[in-house]
Design a protein that fits this description.
Layout (H helix, E strand, L loop, with lengths): L3 E2 L4 H4 L7 H8 L5 H20 L4 E5 L3 E5 L1 H7 L7 E2 L1 H4 L12 H7 L3 E10 L6 E13 L5 E10 L1 H51 L5 H33 L7 E3 L1 H24 L6 E6 L10 E3 L1 H17 L6 E9 L2 E7 L7 H4 L23 H11 L3 E7 L3 E9 L4
Parallel strand pairs: 1-5, 9-11
Antiparallel strand pairs: 2-3, 2-7, 3-4, 5-6, 6-7, 8-10, 11-12, 12-14, 13-14
Length: 421
């Protein structure tokens, strides 16, 4: 709608209303008994008095969008120029043959069902000082005996104050949530940084003070522990930086046609090497985790190509593989399957670990969310990995989700659209 004009003196200057359809119908009928005619006219007057008493603007429109009735509040909002009969404001204000964008009037006439829309309208005064007001438009069809729409009743309700209060409440909620996330971030980061820093400081201090008393193998063990703690610090800092870049949009994917299977095999090899090095440095033995990769072609000669950023997709794979290893305390097999499914290429990672409780399954992709258990308390992490994985999938037009059963295991799915052949 274009700018609307409010006239405060509309009620005093309101011209006499034209005859309504009921009055016209009475004049066209054969003569009625005086008592019946007076009763019908009295009923119409009572109806008009009731509608005039309503503070919300109300109008009646034909199916060709001609205004045939408007109460005092409607004319006070739009001005005496909108006294019936005339075209509805959606048309006459713009002079167009079509109504304003998203106008519910045509749909109400077509479907014979009530319509609703909330719009921001520019409402002015006689002095020309305009203001933006938010209105709800409620549209109701009036059906004839044969079921066709005969008239349309429209009611406007000014909800500007309610919307301002809602926006202010939403902003206050967002500020509180931001403060909570900041406090949670500081608490989580400080906790996660303290452990590797303490290890580095402790081992380094021991080497400085007692270097000559320590044997060669013991010094080497201390240096390995410092190196491992440094790697943990690097992972924490990189995850924080990556999450920040993904949230702010500064990390732009560099898309290219890509075969998924070689990238999955690289991720598996890297994950197994990291786990063996970590376990070997602590216990002298390798991890018992075994990876099993299955490629399901489903009648195709090879997997279809996808459009992806190799580095980002590799990050997402590293996260789900690391997650599977961390929460499989017995070190059992981890099964990876790559298969086409309709227009998507789906990578699934299944473990036989501790699983995820149902009340946590819907929140595991939230930032800083971690399932609290005796095992998770011993696993390092910020709770950002799966949130990063979700954001990477979104940037690729894909999706990530999980299925899990406590004490049985979990399966994580990464789905990416493939390129047309």
């Amino acid at each position: 709608m274009k700018q609307l004009s409010t006239h405060n003196a509309a009620k005093e200057q309101m011209p006499e209303k034209p005859a309504t359809r009921a009055t016209q119908a009475l004049s066209a009928c054969p003569p009625l008994p005086d008592a019946l005619r007076e009763a019908l006219q009295g009923t119409e007057i009572d109806w008009q008095r009731i509608v005039e008493a309503i503070a919300d603007p109300i109008c009646v429109v034909t199916t060709s969008y001609e205004l045939v009735y408007a109460n005092a509040a409607y004319i006070a909002l739009l001005g005496p120029a909108y006294t019936p009969p005339r075209r509805h404001v959606c048309y006459s204000a713009s002079g167009a043959s079509e109504p304003c964008p998203n106008c519910p009037l045509p749909d109400v006439v077509r479907t014979r069902r009530p319509g609703y829309i909330q719009q921001e309208l520019s409402v002015g005064t006689q002095a020309g000082n305009g203001s933006q007001r938010i209105f709800q438009r409620w549209i109701y069809p009036v059906l004839a005996a044969d079921g066709a729409v005969e008239l349309v009743v429209e009611m406007l309700k000014d909800v500007t104050e309610q919307e301002l209060m809602r926006v202010e409440a939403a902003q206050a909620t967002a500020i509180r949530e931001a403060d909570r996330l900041k406090a949670e971030l500081l608490g989580t980061v400080s906790h996660e940084l303290r452990s590797p820093l303490a290890a580095i400081k402790g081992y380094a201090a021991t080497l400085v003070r007692h270097e000559h008393r320590l044997g060669r193998e013991e010094r080497h063990e201390f240096l390995l522990a410092i190196d491992e703690a440094s790697n943990r610090l690097e992972v924490i800092i990189n995850r924080l930086l990556e999450m920040s870049e993904l949230e702010t949009g500064t990390l732009v994917p560099r898309m290219e046609p890509l075969q998924v299977e070689p990238l999955v095999r690289e991720a598996i090899t890297s994950a197994q090497a990291r786990r063996n090095n970590s376990a070997g440095s602590a216990t002298g033995t390798g991890d018992t985790t075994r990876f099993a990769l299955t490629v399901a072609l489903q009648g195709q000669e090879e997997l279809p190509l996808i459009q992806a950023d190799p580095r980002l997709l590799r990050d997402a794979l590293d996260i789900v593989l690391e997650n599977a290893m961390n929460y499989s305390p017995a070190g059992g097999p981890i099964r990876i399957t790559v298969r086409p499914d309709k227009s998507m290429l789906v990578i699934s990672v299944q473990d036989n670990g501790i699983g995820i409780p149902p009340d946590h399954l819907g929140r595991i992709f939230d930032r800083f969310h971690r399932v609290d258990s005796s095992l998770t308390r011993t696993v390092d992490g910020l709770g950002l990995g799966l949130a990063i994985c979700k954001r990477i999938m979104e940037l690729h037009g894909g999706a990530v989700w999980a299925e899990s059963e406590p004490e049985v295991g979990s399966t994580f799915y990464l789905a990416l659209p493939w390129l047309p052949a």
